[in-house]
Amino acid sequence: MKFETALIHAGQDADKTTGSVNIPVYQTSTYKQDGIGKDRGWEYSRTGNPTRKALEDCIAALEGAKYGLAFASGLAAESTACLGLLRKGDHVVSGDDVYGGTYRLFEKVFRKWGLEISYADSKDPNSFKKAMRRNTRMIWAETPTNPLLNITDIAALADIAKKGKAILAVDNTFATPYFQRPIELGADIVVHSSTKYLGGHSDVIGGLMAVADKGVYEEVKFHQNAAGGVPGPWDSWLTLRGMKTLAVRMKAHEANAFAVAAFLTAHPAVAKVYYPGLETHPSHALADRQMDGFGGMVSFELKGGRAAAEAFFRKLKIFVLAESLGGVESLACYPSTMTHAAIPERDRLKRGITAGLVRLSAGIENSDDLIKDLDRALK
């Protein structure tokens, strides 16, 4: 089944009772049992729900995995992946350029529970290799990264993880399985904030996970049920509905991102543009090799720092200053005080998250309108 077809049909056969072509919203907390120990495959909706199961089967098919899991948010998926697989004293090697919420989870939650965390240069597999220890149990990577759009070599990290007997988990939120499938490159776990491109309409919060190995799946599945950070059936249904149009949306997001990146590159008010589709991007060749496209996210450095950024955001009319990304509408974000505020300023600056950095999520509007909006704001 080709990708576009799987978006519509994977895990989503017509309803056996009514013939409905859409998966029903099974708005129930519990299920009738025919006797002691005689359930019909469903017992309690924290443990499993038919609408959620359709979503889980769909993400597994899209990522080329055997198993899928759905969660109440992307961070719930991250938490469950770590807590379900790691123990006190275990070591995690994470890329240094990660979402601020991931950094906060590692530093403010997991570290005090006894996990050890080190950060490696997201662009350099050798940096991950050097950071490995005897007690390393997981490598965590985002690619493309948030917010600097760095590209991490997934196949190289998979080799390092395998040799170190560690699990490789990859956050694939920015690329989506339309542009990148980490399990095909050797990853063990793929995590998404389905709030973003998968849901695609800025109307639902969720997280998804795809898992290659049965043993890993069973451990995470146990923790998913035990901890209970699952989405309700309505959120699951909304995400499935959004995913049906992922292929057509991602093409439009990417086309607009290319147009925006080209415009910004030539603008005198812009010091630097971060977009892996540009041939000037230092990891363009790697992105071209491991991805089927370059995505809809563009970051850029404004000359003039925070004052220039504040003036820029005040003048925007189509791009909306807001958290999140991946919706049909174009969004603009100021990482220093928004998505990455949890990272101390010294560490932010060290990683390249400066006072002039702006992150754009190119929507699916007309590209001419987006460029005119940016041009007006940059003046």
Tell me about this structure.
This protein has 379 residues and is an alpha/beta fold. It contains 14 helices and 12 strands. The protein has helices at residues 3-9, 50-63, 74-85, 100-110, 125-131, 154-163, 176-179, 214-227, 233-243, 246-265, 284-290, 305-315, 345-351, 367-378, and strands spanning 67-71, 91-95, 116-120, 136-142, 167-171, 189-193, 207-211, 270-274, 297-302, 320-321, 331-333, 357-361. Strands 1-7-6-5-4-2-3 form a 7-stranded mixed beta sheet, sandwiched between helices. Strands 8-9-12-11-10 form a 5-stranded mixed beta sheet. Helix 3 (74-85) packs across helix 8 and helix 10 (246-265) runs parallel beside helix 14 (367-378). The termini are far apart.
Fold blueprint:
Blueprint: H1 3-9, H2 50-63, E1 67-71, H3 74-85, E2 91-95, H4 100-110, E3 116-120, H5 125-131, E4 136-142, H6 154-163, E5 167-171, H7 176-179, E6 189-193, E7 207-211, H8 214-227, H9 233-243, H10 246-265, E8 270-274, H11 284-290, E9 297-302, H12 305-315, E10 320-321, E11 331-333, H13 345-351, E12 357-361, H14 367-378
Parallel strand pairs: 2-3, 2-4, 4-5, 5-6, 10-11
Antiparallel strand pairs: 1-7, 6-7, 8-9, 9-12, 11-12
Helix pairs in contact: 2-9, 3-8, 10-14, 12-14
Find the CATH superfamily of the largest domain.
Type I PLP-dependent aspartate aminotransferase-like (Major domain)
Percent helix range: 25-40%
Instruction: Determine the number of helices (DSSP H or I, runs of at least 4 residues).
Output: 14
Terminal Cα span: 49 Å
Named at the architecture level, the CATH assignment of the largest domain is: 3-Layer(aba) Sandwich
